[in-house]
Amino acid sequence: MFHVTERLLLRPFWPEDWDQVLAGVGEKAIACNLARVPWPYTEDDARWWTSQPQDPRLPAFAVIESRSGALIGAAGLGRKTGSVEVELGYWLARSHWGRGLATEAGRGVIEVARMLGIRRVVAGHFADNPASGRVLRKLGFGGPQAARRYSLARGCEVQSLEYVLELGEPAQPVMQAA
Fold first, then answer.
1. 3-class DSSP state for residue 106?
2. What's the number of CA atoms in the CB half-sphere (13 Å) around residue 170?
3. What are the percentages of helix, strand and coil residues in the chain, rounded to 5?
4. Family per UniProt (predicted)?
5. Are the C-beta atoms of residues 113 and 76 closer than 8 Å to each other?
6. What angle do CA 74, 86, 150 make, to 5 degrees?
7. The whole model's pTM is what?
């Protein structure tokens, strides 16, 4: 599945993306903001991630900057650990922070979620990463609710804030009168 926003192309990951994923996530400041990413993040980790099969009902997208064609991050949907809830997740390489691209990528993923008929999305961030909270609030997520979540990179549970976005009823096709 592909999706286009004003400045981004959201597309599936390809195995040959591993080096760009490693460059983006291979920084401790990024890995420690993600629940399921180990630190150190290795070439094997990046190769594994980019070769995973895609679930068309819960797509994970490579975030490509349209202007440069560079892979600058990831955004997608998945199951929240230990839950059936659909969760939004994302990361951007540090050199692309502060330009509204995480919000734009998140908005694109939410548009896809609506098209897929998903009615509720959850998301969260570690309490020491308030920038992600700003992104989630810009996307319309409500909350937050205090929680704790395990961080693989940190090797422990960390204070987190959890949010919810109600998408409502899936869009119904308009029927034309004959």
1. helix
2. 9
3. 30, 35, 40
4. Belongs to the acetyltransferase family. RimJ subfamily.
5. no
6. 75
7. 0.92
Q: How far is CA 4 from CA 27, 65, 105, 135, in A?
A: 27, 10, 9, 19
CA distance 159 to 144: 12
SS3 155: coil
Give the domain 3-119 fold: Aminopeptidase (3.40.630)
Per-residue pLDDT in tens (0 to 9) along the chain, 178 residues:
999 999 999 999 999 999 999 999 989 999 999 999 999 999 999 999 999 999 999 999 999 999 999 999 999 999 988 889 999 999 999 999 999 999 999 999 999 999 999 999 999 999 999 999 999 999 999 999 999 999 999 999 999 999 999 998 655 554 445 4
Give domain limits for the chain.
Answer: 3-119
Question: The tokens of 174 are what?
Answer: 């308009």
Q: Contact, 161 vs 145, CB < 8 A? A: yes
Is there a contact between 89 and 75 (Cβ–Cβ < 8 Å)? yes
